[in-house]
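Check out a protein:
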Amino acid sequence: MRKPKTFIILLAAISLLLTCCLVGCGKEQEQDTGGSSDTVHTVVDMAGREVTVPNKIDKVFSTNPPGAILLYTLDPDLMIGWNYSLGEAEKRFILPQCHNLPNLGGWMAKGTCNTEELLKIKPDLIIYMGDTDQVAAHLANNIQNEVDIPVVVVDSDIKNMEKAYEFIGKLLNQEKQAKTLGTYCRETLGEIQSKSKKNYRG
């Protein structure tokens, strides 16, 4: 019996994200603390937008859970909050230091961000992880204009996880960790796809 393609993709996504969390917990953090917080530079995000960001980024927020997981696996110390309250099952995979980070909501399907609390913490950067089309670019611009904090779009396509890690890793001075995780995602996805093809033939 053939399994639905969407089920296999979903299973691959869950496996990658959970395993990447575990890998990220055990890696040494290597963030560069040099530079001045009032010095900025311009980057081109994965939606083709030019965004001015600080050279030194100490606090980051994601608009949705996929971006939060990406950030957590790179450097949990940069996180300022989650998009929802963590359950006990999820806490098993998360470092204790991140259990009590505030639930700030986010810009999701039906979710709203607690912008008042967000602006009290004032992150240096916001990650918008999703599609990279013009709609996503427009939404990212709206968020950036609303809170006056730079927003970068990161591709959420599971096939592009290696590129996503490469982009955000360079931005956060976590290139070594990003390369490790990106390579792991690519190799693991390749294994899943290979096994799924064998199952289809069977």
About this structure: Residues 5-28+38-201 form a domain with the Rossmann fold fold (CATH 3.40.50.1980). Helices lie at 5-25, 65-74, 88-91, 115-121, 134-147, 161-171, 175-201. The chain has one domain: 5-28+38-201. Residues 175-201 form the longest helix (27 residues).
